[in-house]
């Protein structure tokens, strides 16, 4: 596929046909994705390829606590898991939330757990009084490359992070060393419905000239 078409049609895919995703295709997806940039070209990413049904069910269990809080906060009119706005829902209400039984981690052909070695990231924002973001530059380009490469092969997936709230459980389940962070859990499969056009904000709404409060960025007329 044309690169622009891949970027414009890589949607979050949560429903799958059940068609197989063979190991050779998955290896090709990862082979292309590995060329993502990373700080200092340290390439600290690791992928755990999970096909085992019991392991996937355990990953779903790890995601449930985070999903419960997410749903409870939505119902309360909050922005779920937002670092600037603390949760105002009590623990008893959160615990009573029923999480839908259907999960893409169960119905996908494969689940990829993407990790990053914290020993090789450069977190320039680690001393700022806010949640850290910069270290993600060493892993999320790779995660996105996986989704782009999957789209190019006719497959799709979605970047999920609910299980990260229970990272110690995920580490124990998959034998992940303590110096690695779990960055994403990606279910992949053949989409039931492949979107051909996505809706996004126009450039003028997301880019400004020279300053954050500058004029909207548009190509100048010649």
From TrEMBL:
Gene3D superfamilies: NADH Oxidase. Transmembrane segments: none annotated. Keywords: Oxidoreductase. Signal peptide: none annotated. GO terms for molecular function: oxidoreductase activity. Pfam families: Nitroreductase. Residues 12-190 form the Nitroreductase domain. Belongs to the nitroreductase family. This is Nitroreductase. It comes from Mycobacterium lehmannii.
């Amino acid at each position: 596929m044309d690169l622009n078409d891949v970027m414009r049609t890589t949607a979050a895919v949560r429903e799958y046909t059940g068609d197989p995703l063979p190991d050779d295709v998955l290896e090709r997806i990862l082979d292309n994705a590995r060329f993502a940039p990373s700080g200092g070209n340290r390439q600290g990413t690791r992928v755990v390829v999970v096909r085992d049904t019991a392991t996937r069910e355990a990953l779903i269990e790890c995601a449930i606590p985070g999903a419960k809080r997410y749903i409870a906060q939505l119902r309360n009119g909050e922005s779920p898991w937002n670092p600037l706005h603390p949760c105002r829902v009590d623990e008893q209400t959160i615990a009573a939330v029923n999480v839908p039984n259907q999960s893409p981690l169960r119905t996908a052909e494969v689940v990829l757990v993407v990790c990053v070695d914290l020993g090789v990231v450069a977190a320039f924002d680690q001393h700022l009084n806010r949640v850290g973001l910069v270290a993600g530059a060493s892993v999320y380009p790779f995660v996105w490359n996986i989704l782009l490469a999957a789209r190019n092969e006719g497959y799709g997936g979605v970047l999920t992070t609910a299980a990260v709230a229970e990272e110690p459980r995920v580490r124990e389940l998959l034998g992940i060393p303590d110096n690695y962070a779990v960055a994403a859990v990606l279910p992949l499969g053949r989409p039931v419905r492949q979107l051909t056009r996505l809706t996004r904000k126009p450039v003028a709404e997301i880019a400004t000239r020279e300053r954050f409060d500058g004029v909207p960025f548009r190509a100048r007329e010649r």
